[in-house]
Amino acid sequence: LLDALSDQAALAIERVMLAEDVDRAKLAAETERLRSALLTSISHDLRTPLASILGSATSLTRYGTALDEPARLELATTIQEEAERLNRFIANLLDMTRLESGAIRPRTGPVDLSEVVGSALERAGRILAGHRVEVDLAADLPMVDLDPVLFEQSLFNLLDNAAKYAPAGSQVTVRARRVPAGVEAQVMDEGDGIPPADVDRIFDKFYRVHAQDRQRAGTGLGLAICRGFVEAMGGSIVAGNRRDRSGAVFTLTLPAAADLPMPEETAP
Ligand code: ADP
């Protein structure tokens, strides 16, 4: 009986091992498929801006002298904007790699939110030039426990999206108020918003809601980086839609800096 049982056990183990091999082969094939999809996507994102830089630069060198000043300026502006787009894409790829390898170690400390909001808005100035920007920060905001560099980058990515996905002339709002968990900061716009089924998936790497988003400058990495950074600092971020009108809302909950001890508590 023992022999029979051990034969059966051996057979069962063999079957499991075979199934594991099949699973492993499937996993390897799936990894390979993802890797090649990723390469295609990255090559596309690098090539599109490069093609327009090359086109504009060629026009300038070939016909520059025959063109009038506004036409030359337009070509130079295209070169500048597309080079900035490439720069952002590469910065995003590096940020993603650093996040995934665990090389991001936030240097948190008490931060004045209004200062970081100010510097993120300044950095996004040119991108947001066609929008109206409203800043609404509560007067009683406590200091927040953040890494200012990572937080500015996270805000910048949200502002960049608001500019991209909401029409020119519409309003982009940055708001912050005190909540029991710390501080709640929001970036909202007046675009089409996000389909409810996608509110969480948009934080996945390379996920983009619409096929036509491919035509818009972007990498599908901005929100993944944003969530990675915010969570690394002990905060959270969720996406949703406005109730009062059409538009997306991104809500960040950030830990308040620990209250400074009262003088009597530190006394011996
Ligand atoms: P990217 O903007 O480069 O595509 P993101 O990770 O920043 O990548 O965003 C992922 C997707 O989420 C976008 O492609 C877009 O479909 C959607 N999205 C992000 N922000 C907004 C927004 N403010 N309004 C509507 N859709 C948005």
From TrEMBL:
Domain Histidine kinase: 41-258
One Gene Ontology cellular component: cytoplasm
KW Cell membrane (keyword) present: no
Broad class of the protein's primary localization: membrane
Signal peptide coordinates: none
Keyword Plastid appears in the UniProt entry: no
Protein name as annotated: histidine kinase
Cited function: Member of the two-component regulatory system KdpD/KdpE involved in the regulation of the kdp operon. KdpD may function as a membrane-associated protein kinase that phosphorylates KdpE in response to environmental signals.
Gene source species: Azospirillum thiophilum
Entry's localization field: Membrane
Domain of life: Bacteria
GO function terms (MF aspect): ATP binding; identical protein binding; phosphorelay sensor kinase activity
Keywords of the record: ATP-binding, Kinase, Membrane, Nucleotide-binding, Phosphoprotein, Transferase, Transmembrane, Transmembrane helix, Two-component regulatory system
Shown stretch of the complete protein: 654 to 921 of 921
